[in-house]
Amino acid sequence: MLRRRLFHTLTHFCPRIQQTETSLLSGFPCPLQHGHRSAWHGTKSDVPDVRERTLIAVKPDGVQRRLVGQIIQRFEQRGFKLVGLKMLKASEDLLSEHYCELRTKPFYHSLLSYMTSGPVVAMVWEGHNVVQTSRIMVGHTNPAEAQTGTVRGDFSTHVSRNVVHASDSLEGAQREIQLWFQANDLLDWDCCDQTSTSDV
Ligand code: IDP
Ligand code: MG
């Protein structure tokens, strides 16, 4: 009942939401392809639009330092769309998959212990060129080399506590999103200002 009332309020301000009534009312998104690109049908024509997705995660130091809101704000302000969000204590199994390419690095075990030291906020963001743009927004792996204005450049000083993760490629994003999220954790929704942030 409450959900239906909320739905009618939302459709009053954003009529395009009506298209997703069934999925909103059932509490789950339209079926979504997992991965870095998801096909979704635009409202202006029947030509499917292709959207890019990436995994952004606020690491335990970022959560402890209450930086989650500021990090989310940067992605919202840039014009990206949040399509998945969860807070969790990541398991060693998940992290060993996530960081499988770093298994031989000398810092690997301390990285896993840092990443399991507290909650992580994992998110999937969608939008034009989001993988590359979010890497630029996050900044250099080593905060000492990160530009001011980037998340790491503004909020951190040491490579072992660099606040945030961002997928580094389209393929990496696809792999990581599948690792951290189930298909029905991700919500396909129409942003009222979508035509103000891109031409579709
Ligand atoms: P990225 O996070 O910018 O993609 P990667 O090279 O993929 O950087 O490394 C993953 C994470 O491993 C980094 O974000 C950082 O937390 C950690 N890390 C990388 N290099 C070092 C290091 O030299 N010492 C300690 N931790 C490191
Ligand atoms: Mg990386």
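Residues 35 and 175 are 7 Å apart (CA to CA).
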